[in-house]
Design goal:
globular, about 15% strand, about 45% helix, 8-stranded parallel beta sheet, alpha/beta, TIM Barrel
């Protein structure tokens, strides 16, 4: 496949400063979720991705409480300068003491492509008014919100497409990458995709794993309807199996070479071009 021969782009990868990453692993252990890559350091994580054909990766961080964003973003900027394999998406918490400065440093000072918000971790609804300055800043600068707003894999009262639609209604010009394709509400996601042309999806977790089975049919239908707005994502290393299997599941959908290449590489490359003000040819 020509696109794949040029390398995969993974739109959903996580790394954090050492102590924070250890705390995240402990959080998953509390829910009984076995993560076989929990002991890997950044070098081995990068080597594993490169070994499976990944050429570039969106590096996503998130803030679990107020006033940690600045430190995480500082680390992210330094790490990605030394490791250009990664494309940085920073973090912010709506209750950060100096919210405007955190946003400005991330998007203007460090030049991040966007910000990741994990609403389950923040334990806040996406439509809470405290998020409005963040959304406005992203919309104004043409940067992306990477949103974990779905009820999967762990539901919560803060999550769901009905809630998240209010954000899209208020900020239709904001580019949004919806993590995990919005599972388990793919029917509602399809409606949102038709209404909001700046909404993108990533496939992290969307085709299941060794412990959770997902019907691939609705995922395939969604990709075929929106072949230019679905990005491959692995969620590595916060994943329960080898990320090579996540690529295999995309291939097993039999989407055809052109669409498969777009999902595995082309769509992510074009999105980065859009976010950087380029023409999308990377």
């Amino acid at each position: 496949m020509e696109e794949n021969a040029r390398g995969i782009w993974d739109a959903h990868v996580h790394l954090f400063p050492g102590r924070l990453f250890k705390a995240i692993w402990r959080w998953f252990e509390k829910f009984g979720m076995e993560m076989p890559y929990g002991g890997l350091g950044p070098g081995r994580i990068t080597a594993h991705l490169e070994g499976m054909g990944v050429e570039r990766a969106f590096l996503l961080v998130y803030a679990h409480k107020p006033d940690v964003s600045a430190e995480i973003n500082r680390w992210l900027s330094g790490f990605c300068r030394k490791n250009p394999f990664y494309l940085p998406f920073g973090c912010v918490h709506p209750h950060d003491t100096d919210l405007g400065r955190v946003i400005g440093d991330a998007l203007d000072g460090y030049g991040f492509y966007g910000l990741k918000i994990h609403y389950l971790v923040a334990r806040m609804r996406p439509d809470a008014p405290e998020f409005t300055p963040i959304y406005r800043a992203l919309e104004k600068r043409g940067k992306a919100l990477v949103a974990h707003a779905s009820i999967a894999p762990i539901p919560g009262p803060w999550l769901g497409m009905d809630i998240f639609e209010r954000v899209l209604e208020e900020h239709p010009g904001m580019t949004v990458q919806l993590a995990h394709m919005g599972h388990y509400e793919l029917d509602k996601v399809a409606v949102l995709m038709r209404k909001y042309p700046n909404l993108y999806l990533d496939t992290a977790w969307a085709l299941g794993n060794s412990s959770i089975r997902i019907d691939p049919g609705p995922v395939r239908e969604l990709i075929l309807e929106f072949p230019g707005r679905v990005l491959y994502g692995s969620d590595f290393p916060i994943i329960m199996e080898d990320p090579c299997r996540t690529v295999e599941r995309i291939l097993e959908l039999s989407l055809g070479d052109e669409i498969t290449g777009a999902v595995l590489r082309g769509n992510a490359a074009r999105l980065i071009g859009k976010l950087s003000g380029a023409d999308g040819s990377v």
